[in-house]
Amino acid sequence: MLKKKKLLSLITPLAAASIILAACGTSEETGTNGSTGEEGEGATKLVVGTDAAYAPFESFDDSGKIVGIDVDVVNAIGEEVGVDFEINNVAWEPLFQQVTNGEVDLGVSAITITEERKETYDFTEPYYEATQLIVTKEDSDIASLADLKDKKIGVQINTTGHYAAQDLQGKTSTSILPYETTPIAIQEVINGTVDAAIGDNAVILEYIKNNPDSKLKSIEDDSFEKEYYGLMVKKGNEEVLDLLNEGIEKLKETGKLAEITGQEIE
Ligand code: ARG
Fold first, then answer.
1. What is the span of the domain harbouring residue 138?
2. Pocket around ligand 1: residues whose beta carbon is below 6 Å from it?
3. Atom of ligand 1 nearest to the CA of 158
4. Among 61, 261, 224, which residue's Cα sits nearest to residue 135?
5. Given pLDDT bands bounded at 50, 70 and 90, which one contains residue 13?
6. Is there a domain that residue 38 lies in?
């Protein structure tokens, strides 16, 4: 990766110039302002969109770099298949739009593969297994999902946590408060705006671990189904999808994926 850095810095990172296919001699015109022509030495570059408020999958470190499990996964894929990734923080909802309109080549954001999303997007093979968790104040008497039936629930908008809350209370429930990010939804539990939040398990656990003074607890519930994260591309973008799947396949074979994620997945 490091060696390629120099080369990459010569490329104007216009997101629209999605794939620079090295093997293909006609790739130069995908660059901007005629600044290409130098990258044809083997680097395919793909632009990733993410919502980097989602530790441990994607968040900013102290130096302003986006780091996390998802970043490690795509970089490992890149090493396997000879691709470079540029990761952009575009926020959760815009991410879907940007994959659709081609501003980014793929979404990598702990995105759960759902039947509904599969109507509009294609997903790679799963790379991580997750489920939902409830987070509430330590001294709350909430103990299960059923206990949230008449409670105020904070969620990140249009996430599987949001959908779980809607399944419980109905789509139009005014007791469901959708926020732009998961950390905000959790913060509103602390503030008392909502009684609980529902979110991805690893993210809730990471938040509690990183904020020991927040006086929060997490609650599991069997009615939350298993979810699988996939990398997301625009429907029909087989070229990128195949490349990503090839990388994931190799990472599964070598055990590198399990090393990165800390879990086994088929
Ligand atoms: N896994 C959940 C979903 O796909 C939440 C993902 C949110 N990711 C993020 N980076 N904010 O709906």
1. 132-219
2. 51, 54, 58, 92, 109-112, 156, 159-160, 182, 200
3. 12
4. 224
5. very low
6. yes
